[in-house]
Amino acid sequence: MVPLAGCAATKPATDFTYQDVPAERVADRIFLADTIAAVEQCSPPFSDVVVRRPTFTGAPPPVDGGCGGAIRAGASWEYTDAVSRVTALHDTVVREWEVLLRSGPEAAETRALTATLLHCLDRAGFTQRGPGDPGLESYGVSQGDVALDNAAQRCSDETWYGAGIAAQRLRTLRSVLGRHEEQINQIAKLRPVLERAAVPDGGRDRARFGLPE
Predict the structure, then answer these.
(1) CB within 8 A of 20, min separation 6: which ones?
(2) pLDDT digits over 130-139, tens only?
(3) Residues sharing a CB contact under 8 Å with residue 167, sequence separation 6 or more, in sequence order
(4) CA dist 133 to 4, 129, 137, 156, Å?
(5) Torsion of CA 136, 142, 144, 145, to 10 degrees
(6) pLDDT band at 1 (very low <50, low <70, confident <90, very high)
(7) Rounded to whole angstroms, what are the CA distances from 209 to 3, 192, 196?
(8) Which residues have CB under 8 Å from 23's CB, separation 6+?
(9) How confident is the model over 101-110, as a mean pLDDT?
(10) Is the pLDDT of residue 100 over 90?
């Protein structure tokens, strides 16, 4: 996409930079999750910024991917400092993202999408179980009822809910990323630092991690 000159003053450059990053690649491209996972021999961290359709039939992957164990403990200061900087930006982005999703217009959109799912559950014979406003929690979704969770998954997949929630989350995440363009550009420069500084020693230890000597 080529931005129009008349829009340059009103639309952040980052919107153009990151709008084409696939939802499943945000953690790798921006937060270097794939590099950290390769070095530390763990699953990719920062799974909470990998935007997918909602899943009600299984536990989400751990946000840290199981990273941060003995390999990180034995790595150089340069490596651990780089990971700390990446993690700090990730945590800031996630906090701001959660605030944005709870804001008036976004919260209203979430409620409207959720109502679609709940109406589907009603038709399937699963009605509100708990007190309070109608919602996933008061309906008992993801609280151990396998039949209910399976029904919620079918409703999510068969209605606009699943695609709509994923689209909203990706749109709002990109909006938050647009506030941090300078920091994201600095984080991108840390990828070779992570690879080079995985351990204090040189080529012999790098080969042990499967990295070029």
Answers:
(1) 1
(2) 999 999 999 9
(3) none
(4) 45, 11, 9, 19
(5) 60
(6) very low
(7) 42, 14, 11
(8) 50, 51, 52, 166, 170
(9) 96
(10) yes
